[in-house]
Design brief:
Length: 230
């Protein structure tokens, strides 16, 4: 998951890292329900004492959600930012005995095999070629039939559609209480720095990486989520 330097730098800024947990619930429509849906989709195949790979685990929001609701799961979280992994470790607190954190990209994560995996709010930081490589590496680490749940920005990339959807992204942020100037700065940063594909391209990448039974389960303005199986 190699992000552009300008995107990655935000995850080494101490102030940005300290504020990270405030962001997703205010920027991602239905964030907490999206996490709950992700957990339910994993539960369909991950056994009671299963092992789950969390890609882009920095911040620890989904790690915390998983360990609190699944007392016998063990988790491996991978993220390139040491600052964000530190935040994740603090987020999971006394439950960290069931979580192993790995600094780096997908190749530093254990070989598995894992019973399931998730990748939330991460793929839009990396370009198409690196995204495909990451998906293939996740697939290689999963048991046959194991689920991957992923959520990230994905919407039509036509000139008019892109402009409209990014404006809606900013409008949602303002409606969540974010200062309009900061919301506009965020919109501009997303437009300039992130690697956003359209939904058809995202589904094609999953299939190209070896996944099957690709299903859309979540849409929230500029965000979409899928479940697919190794």
């Amino acid at each position: 998951m190699r992000a552009k330097p300008s995107a990655a730098s935000a995850f080494s800024d101490p102030q940005a890292v300290a504020r990270y947990a405030e962001g997703p619930p205010r920027m991602v429509p239905g964030f907490h329900d999206m996490q709950r849906l992700t957990s339910l989709l994993l539960e369909e195949h991950v056994p009671e004492k299963g092992r789950v790979l969390v890609v882009g685990a920095g911040g620890g929001l989904e790690l915390k959600a998983y360990v609190e609701t699944h007392p016998h799961w063990t988790l491996d979280g991978v993220d390139p930012s040491p600052e964000m992994l530190g935040l994740a470790e603090r987020a999971i607190g006394p439950l960290k005995a069931r979580v192993q954190l790995h600094q780096g990209y997908i190749e530093v994560s254990p070989e598995g095999p894992f019973d399931g995996a998730s990748c939330l709010l991460t793929m839009h930081f990396i370009d198409r070629a690196e995204r495909l490589r990451t998906l293939r590496e996740i697939h290689r680490r999963l048991k046959l039939g194991a689920p991957l749940v992923l959520v990230h920005m994905s919407f039509s990339q036509g000139e008019w559609e892109r402009k409209v959807w990014l404006s809606r992204y900013a409008a949602f942020a303002v409606s969540s209480g974010i200062d309009p100037e900061k919301a506009e700065a965020g919109r501009a940063a997303v437009d300039d720095r992130l690697h956003i594909l359209n939904p058809e391209q995202d589904e094609e990448l999953l299939r190209e990486a070896g996944f099957s039974k690709v299903s859309l389960f979540y849409t929230g303005f500029t965000f979409r989520g899928w479940v697919a199986y190794a």
